[in-house]
Amino acid sequence: MFRFCAVILILLAGPALAQSRAQIETQFRSWQETTLWPQVSRAGVSRAVFDAALNGVTLDWDLPDLVAPGSAPAPRGVPRQAEFRAPARYFAPSTVNGTASTGRQMAQRHAATLAATTRATGVPAHIILAIWGRESAYGRAAIPHDAVRVLGTKAFMSTRADYFTAELVAAMQIMQAGHVSPRAMKSSWAGALGQPQFMPSNFLRYAADGNGDGRADIWGSEADTIASIGTYLVQHGWVAGRDWGFEVTLPGNLSCALEGPDQGRRIADWEAAGVTRVGNRAFPAHERGQVGYLLMPAGRGGPAFIVTPNFYVLKEYNESDLYALFVGHVGDKIAYGVGPFTAGWDSIDTLTRGQVAAMQTSLMRMGLDTGGADGLAGFRTRRSIGQWQQATGQAPTCFPDRAILRALGR
């Protein structure tokens, strides 16, 4: 009887769902005319380009974080992006070593273009290569999505509709300028374009012509990809001549709550506090008088670093600490052949964004600055945990786990 009822429910639900989706597709087409076209037109895009871009485009129901009209957002689960999950997995030796090995090959193959970009921007070749490798495996990774379909879907029904609408308008401006045809504009599931994975608005600001053909082709041109990454970093403040950072060993009495880009000290002062570079290596002489910042992306459960302002330029490319750390580390492997980090990564509890957000809310109620309740354990959240642990007589770990969640009553 139960199985029979279940079959009936499925048969009833299927047509109902199909009808609902059909109705929403109709609303999507109406939205294109009433909401999207006026914005696209004001941005200087012709009707012909608009029509060509949207010709045959339907909603992509397989994308994450969609909110159909009249529906409430789903609870925030475990973050989908690798950058916000387990550090040990993110730094898997096969991934790190493979990216670096191919990067050394690319350094030889594109030596002239890399040298020209470094002269123009001050960004080292090995940093450009590490970003290129992480974003698209040097152009070898599949970038399968139709960018207009992705951006259109998210603009019409996502939790960040205004943001994606602006990005969709920017994508059509790229087409209007003749950089790429609508169906050749391929993106990730989040709408990031081409080999450097630029959002369309960033393409308009930073995409560069590296081969002199008058176009910025970040889908098919390695030279344009290299030049675009370098341009992005220098325009976000890359400081020529400075490193990105150094793995360090901390004395036991140095609090992990000292982490963050707003608590900088001269590197020489970190040394005076007992911080040492791993491997008994000295900090470069030209860095010792410069400001550095403590970075502990897994709290006491992973490696520690003193990073420079260039680390935070890398974070402008992707806001994750792990991403910027990966780029710096792989870049060092490409350029200098360095080994793995000296300290390992402890296993961590898998928490949903909702659970981390609840933890952040509790800490904020105590007057601690977590940077908001976004469900992501950034440096403000990590050090707030450490400050709370210190205040309650615990040994600071500066990283969220289930025991802390329970202790905070969440």
Note the main attributes of this structure.
410 residues; mainly alpha; Lysozyme; 5-stranded antiparallel beta sheet; two-stranded antiparallel ribbon; 7 strands; 50% helix; MltB_2; SLT_2; signal; MltB-like; Lytic murein transglycosylase
Q: Would you kindly provide a written description of the structure presented here, covering whatever features stand out?
A:
The longest helix has 41 residues, at 2-42. It is built from 17 helices and seven strands. Among the domains are: 83-142 and 208-235, no CATH class; 245-336, Lysozyme; 353-407, no CATH class. It is mainly α and 410 residues long. A hairpin with an 8-residue loop joins strand 6 and strand 7. The protein is globular. Helices cover 50% and strands 5% of the residues. The chain has helices at 2-42, 47-54, 87-90, 93-109, 111-121, 125-136, 147-156, 161-176, 200-206, 222-235, 267-272, 285-288, 309-317, 321-336, 353-365, 379-391, 402-407, and strands spanning 145-146, 186-187, 245-249, 265-266, 276-277, 291-295, 304-307. A five-stranded antiparallel beta sheet has the order 4-6-7-3-5. A two-stranded antiparallel sheet has the order 1-2. It starts with a helix and ends with a helix. It comes from Loktanella gaetbuli. This is Lytic murein transglycosylase. Keywords: Signal. InterPro entries: Lysozyme-like_dom_sf, MltB-like, MltB_2, Peptidoglycan-bd-like, PGBD-like_sf, SLT_2. Pfam families: PG_binding_1, SLT_2.
